[in-house]
Structure formats: C-alpha cells, structure tokens
Design a protein that fits this description.
Helices cover 23% and strands 12% of the residues. By secondary structure, it is of the alpha+beta class. The radius of gyration is 22 Å and the shape is elongated. A hairpin with a 2-residue loop joins strand 1 and strand 2. The longest helix is centred in the N-terminal third of the chain and has 11 residues. The termini are far apart. It has a domain of 46 residues. Bound molecules: zinc ion. Zinc ion binds next to loops. Zinc ion (ZN) binds next to loops.
Length: 101
C-alpha cells in the first residue's frame, strides 16, 4: 500500500462514500456544538469525533459533518498555538545620542 499523504491516520477504504453518507445524514450542516446548539454552517468536511489515532472508529456514530473553519480549528488545535506565542520582544534599549546634550 502506498503511503497516504495524511499526517497520522490514513482514511479508511471507501472514505469518499462514507463522507458523502455522513454529509447527507447531517444535511450538510456543521455539527460543532455551540452555546446555541450546533454551528449549522454549510459543512464540507467529515470529522472523527474520537480521532482514529485514539481508537475512534469509522462508524457513523463517531463521525460528524463540520464546516471548513471548524474542521480547521479542530485539526490544528494542537499544532497551531506554539508558533503564535513566538513573538520577538522589542526591548532594545534606546540609544543615547552622544551629541545631544
Ligand atoms: Zn461550523
């Protein structure tokens, strides 16, 4: 089997069909919980509620539709934060101008 381009967990065989089925089941509505219920935005991604790398299954019960932004948020939650915290502090002392007195 050729190495898949996915980072950690290869998608199951027939993923395309499963994906379509889940999107249809959820009426293409994002299922991310929000304080008001669910997001409900147009969903184009299918997410493992429990990641396959943590033993989550490919059963419909473990799959839900997500909109693009929410899928991105969920997938990059671990990796994305480290770089944002890396800011160069501007604490170079102001130079004294020798001729200004
Ligand atoms: Zn959403």
């Amino acid at each position: 089997m050729a190495a898949p381009s996915w980072r950690t967990t290869p998608k199951p065989q027939g993923w395309g069909a499963i994906r379509q089925r889940i999107l249809k089941r959820d009426n293409h509505a994002c299922q991310m919980p929000t304080p008001l219920g669910v997001c409900g935005a147009w969903a184009n991604e299918v997410d493992h509620i429990t990641p396959a790398s943590l033993g989550g299954s490919d059963e419909p019960a473990n799959l839900r539709s997500l909109c693009g932004p929410h899928h991105k948020v969920k997938s990059s939650r671990e990796g994305g934060q480290a770089s944002a915290a890396k800011r160069i502090p501007r604490n170079r002392p102001a130079e004294q101008h020798p001729g200004l007195r």
